[in-house]
Write a structure and sequence with these properties.
By secondary structure, the protein is an alpha/beta fold. Helix 5 (96-105) packs across helix 21 (583-592) and helix 10 crosses helix 12. The chain contains 25 helices and 30 strands.
Length: 741
Amino acid sequence: MVELLSPAGEYSSFLGAINAGADAVYLAGNMYGARASAVNFSNEELIKAIRYAHLFNRKVFLTVNTLTKNNELENLRDFLNPLYQSGLDAVIVQDIGVFKYIKDTFKDLDIHVSTQAVVTSKYGAEFYKKLGAARVVLARELTLPEVKEITSTGIETECFIHGAMCYSYSGMCLFSSFLGGNSGNRGRCKGPCRQPYVLGNANKEEYLLSLSDMNTVEIIDRLINAGIYSFKIEGRLKSPSYAAGVTAIYRKYIDFCLENPGKELIISEEDKNILKTLYSRTSTGTGYYDRVSSRKMVTIEKGAYAKVDDALEKKIIEKYINTPLKQKIDFKFKAIPNEKAELKVKTVINNIEFKAEVTSEELIDMAQKVATSKEDIIKQLKKLGNTDFELDKCEITIDNSFVPSSLVNKLRREAVDLLEIEIFNANLNKQTLIENESIKSNGLFDSEKYSESNDLVNSEDINQIFDNNKNIVNKRAFVKSIEQLNFALNNIFYDSVVVNKDLINNPEAKSLMNDCSKPIYIELPPVLRSLNQSEFQELIDYASNNDAIKGVYANQYDAYELLKKKGFKKEICSNANIYSYNNLSASISSKLFDEITAPLELNFYDIPEINKSFSYMIYGRAPLMHTANCVLKTTGKCQKCLPNKESFVNLKDRLGVDFKVYTACDNNLCFNTIYNSKPTSLHKYYNRLKEKGVNTCIFSFTDENTDDLERITNFFEDVFAGKNTEPPYDFTAFHMKNGIL
């Protein structure tokens, strides 16, 4: 089976998508959805949409895919319960704490793992499958062979086939968040990737981070053959005509491929033009399915939307939105004198027959003058008005009877109402709601209660508070260069060092690490894919077999699952990209990881209660994006094959602000990390972070030289000694002070 999944940001878009042939529609309510600026749906509209979809054997998936703060969790059950009871088919989730709460509370509700969770390998898919996920939405950066490998795990896979593309791996972007507090992880991205930038010493602004829109209709046959279960159209912020028009064209060609396997797929020029004019950027392509990165994927020049054809839009609205679908029904009417009238109605949905039957209260009279005709009865039965039904077949049994039109109308209304109830009841979730009281009225998570039904969370582990470590603060340096490594290993201020993966093959770095007694960790690459799995394996082997290495830092659950499958015995620490946004997710992370790094977006009051060793970045440039494209490759300056390639280049925005781009490309993959223009410095919050339970302060260095390191270290030595001094560098404490929306 192949599913066509369409977006809806409002009810008209939902109708258009369903009427144009979507098998399922994804949408959001007024909470927890990652498109906060869409119109979205009230609970009444959501229930109405669920009923309408089920009438035509379609499905509704609700996005609950934002990272969620503690004070927002208390409303989660009340928000979901009426939708669950109405037969909601699935929820789409990013936050692992929300995932587990929904799984334990609404046991038969399918959970789909959002693309925001950055599933990029079979290991990530297997991790979520074991957790109970019904489906994973794969990262858009994957090639088609990588997608095929993940489908082999047996879990349903969902892939994007059309619409806008993010420059960063979705879920790993903090750019909008750090520029103005509008977090993409909270559905409020302001699209900084769509702005112009200047690379290095160039004198020309270009749209270096603005990817072309995806349009895969010409390769949809290959995507079907890859084993993808669900084909997803992006666009909950777009118009009803977009949702309907794009759905209709993909429905047409998906059906062609399914009905004509092996036959050449030819897309008409008319349909190509329709897709180009329905709110697509002037530049489109097939995304990453046939490439790992490419200059051709980037718009370079401003990628404006193509002008929508007014006549086309009007035609789509009339065909798919103003003309709703109707479910065909059959009536069987019987009216014999001196007996009660009977009306039976039936319909078939997904090969299941639904029936209803009503009878009149009074007996039917024999006609005194003119008997009621079959045509008279049929005329009244056809009056289905604003219902979602239309008459298909009608069987009338009548014998010189007088049947008032009002009686036929009354029986018709009652029969149709009963039929709707039968259909609605058949689609309800039958599982009784679990009375999970883990989320208290104050919004905080009671880990002991929650853990009773959770194999990932053990109350003894969670409630073990490291009181002895409360006043012991370790200083851990993340380094990217030999210069930084040498400084951190030889400076007594730093208790441990985390080495970037690019240093591991450097002989000088190996010598420095082997000669040092400090604990050393390896920071694994931001993303695990089959194309770089061999690199992961080399790093894991090196860490396992080298006594100087105490453990590793993972950025994804994909990496965690790989480490466990390979039998890795040393410490596994979570980096800030594995979000512990609330007490539920923090509790799960506490079970999985030896040490947790708190997320970078929360203010002091939103930091969850992490009753285990946890870290916080007290100094360093925040990573704003991890990307599969490369700004150097885009501008024709690729250096990955050069022996002395630059590690950092500058990216300047239109306000003259410089962002640091770390280029970590190799022969298999491109990886860029874009860092904030200013380092975060939380020196003023040091004592409060200690009180919160932080026992490892992270110093994350990017391009700092030895002189910079000396100044930074000397300053923090004074801070840790309780001295009130000013930092010798420009900095921001944006999120700790302001938080995010």
